[in-house]
Known about the structure:
- By secondary structure, the chain is mainly α.
- The protein is 69% helix and 3% strand.
- Helix 1 runs antiparallel to helix 2 (70-91), helix 2 (70-91) runs antiparallel to helix 3 and helix 6 packs antiparallel against helix 7.
Amino acid sequence: MTPIVRSGAAARAGALLILLGPLVSWVAEFVTAAAWQDPPYSPLYNWVSHLGLTGPPQTAFGQAANSPLGAVMDTGWVVYGTLLIAGTFLVFDPRKGARPITIMILAVLAGTGVSLVGIFQGSNANVDNGLIAFHTFGAQGVMLAGNLMAIAVGTGGARIGLTRRRSIASTALGTAGLIAFPLFMTDVFTGWMWNIGLFERAVIYPIMIGHALLGSSVAATQRHRATHPVAPLTARTNS
């Protein structure tokens, strides 16, 4: 099969950026959640995006929010989105057909979406001034595009450098995230709001894990190619 990824230093750098994105976001989430103590932050109950609320404590979307390090989480999301877009454009070669182009488009949508979540907070102030539309568009955009990207990567894993197991895992993660998305939206719009953090993470974490799988797999493949170069055709014929 014809690879759809570039080779060389650019691809290795891109793979590292894709891998770093979710790691940066997870570290920012852990640090920000640890600083939220009044009341203690609950990953199952509390909104993920409430971690990015800066300013005084407030009650937003039915939950008390008090995130002293909200700016850390917002920065983590913007960095994540930027790294994802840059890394994907360094790794994938759009000249190789529809699949790399599709993956790159989905990466732009997902990266822009998560960045919008960090730039436009889900605060009462943004609800009043209308900027909450950008937050909502970003959140739903990354949820859909991110999981579709995981499926596109998984189903084309052999041309990207993923092992069979990792290809299956990426496809399964994206599918699970897409299944969780309507459940999350139902939990929101019915007003039930039961363990909203659990449902939200059921949509988001498959995306992040999928990006980590993609970045680490491409990095490993590129490293193997660099240390075990394929012999020229004439040399293999003569041998």
